[in-house]
Give the backbone structure.
Amino acid sequence: MKRYFFHIGYNGHNYRGWQRQSIAVNIQEVVETTLSQILKTNITAVGCGRTDAQVHASQFFFHADIKEQWDYDLLFRINKILPDDIAVFEIIPVTDLAHARFDATQRTYDYFIHTYKDPFLGNLSSFYLERNLNLDKMRSATALLLRYNDYGGLCKTPSSYRTTICNVTTAGLYSDASGDKLRFQISANRFLARMIRIVVAKLLEIGRGDLSLEEFEDYLISRKTPKIIEPAYPQGLYLSKVVYPYLDIPSRTEFSPFFIHATDRWLPV
């Protein structure tokens, strides 16, 4: 038996997230079914995390144990059978103890917003019809995320966790030159349920003037969950980078037209 990491990416619009469940189509079920069909044996895929329904991943890893070595181009075959919205980029042999979920030391998420109606971005970014967002205040709120490490006040179900400590290492808010498209990026060792989408929703409230910086910071200080806690839309969220002590691969973001990292297109705000 040999363990492999599968480096994949997916558009999550048509799926109820990564995790297998009986009532809806999910990424895990699709990749397990495809691999089992090709290898003619039951394959279990252990993912690096759980993405919510309609959330995307430009980089995601799962591990699988495969008994027999194949003598054909497995990467070609699996991509031939998988639907167009799921792609396998690499198949990487690892040690038998390597674990796609528990060994990850850092995860990075990107959240994209467009503030005008665009028929080509509907499933790749979250549409919020906004005018004159205060980007400076949103940037100041983003900077506060680096000062605290307990996110119990910005989590949907804090009581379900043994600890709500998350060590955030980077957080930034970026805009294109026109200010019509925003990208929020955050990296940490772990994240809580709906945490990123809740943070983005609060940043938008700050940008509109509906929430003050002091009120936002109080969530981080007091760790009290807001009375109204409505996460931002799921389709703007991407798991974009996963780092391991033994594996740090650039994400294949060139496959998505909305992932533009060039400095002349995305500017800090």
Summary: The first strand starts at residue 2 and ends at 10. The mean pLDDT is 91.
